[in-house]
Write a structure and sequence with these properties.
The structure is a single chain. This protein has 338 residues and is of the alpha/beta class. Helix content is 25%, strand content 24%.
Amino acid sequence: MRRALVIAATPGVPLGPNPRVGCVILSADGELLVEGFHRGAGTPHAEAAALNAAREQGIDVRGATAIVTLEPCNHTGRTGPCARALVDAGVARVVFAQSDPNPEAAGGAETLRAAGIEVESGLLADEAHEVNRVWSFALAHQRPFVTWKFATTLDGRSAAADGTSKWISSRAARLDTHRLRALCDVMLVGTNTVAVDNPRLTVRDETDQPLAVQPLRAVMGERDLDPASVIFDDAAPTVQLRTRDPRTALAELHTLERRHVFLEGGPTLAAAFLDAGLVDEVVVYLAPMLLGAGRNAVGDLGIDTIADAVHFAIGDVTVLPPEAGEDANVRLTLTRKV
């Protein structure tokens, strides 16, 4: 199962509507026969990939054990049901970690048992859930998981009084931001950010070249935007969400099968999501500098007393090494306390 979890999290797999899944097939005496993992929407699921590999190599899997990180699916979508594929292949036993939270795909365990296959579940379930924590959250809550990212000074400023903000964050922090962007399938900003900053909102490598697979660029707000804005180029798909309501925006993105929103808008947009209770994770890049004045990292939350403060739990603190002439930045990863 640990091997299946490793291949499930293979780097470079496009993120999106489907979970990350790994499958390892063992012979009756425990010998590893084949393995496979899901490579993105429209490609064979992990079980099918492993079975395909067995057929290509002339390996007989009758009587074998399939170890899978997620309950084999029980529905027909772009590919056939994996539970039926395992039955047809003649495996004798299936062990899976996490039960499928998707009601459209669940039920694979029952199909397998009905066919006389021995089924065990729950092995390393917590580890499997962590691999697909965002996907599982999105299905459970029927909306995308929201990560709010911002860079700030020690006194909570995201820009100086004259509006300048280059560079509050270090190069290491900016590269780390692109790494995190690549883990999401939506980049979300407000119309004001587009009008003022004209950002590209693409994921780029250390040489500033765009990656082959880009998240959806989403702009939230009712104002019309200049069609010549960079965000409307062909570097990545873009959609404008004509609403100021975060719940409506997330509902629209959910219908587009988007699971993870990376919120990079300004203080007003951040305040709207925080006020609605729709920020699930916060990533802060903290620069060791003081401005004393300037734009706050977040807008007015209507909080007048410390008793009403919004609290977060710290999950990770990492010092990002500086380059020559720069100060080290600290990355804080936090989750909102309920």
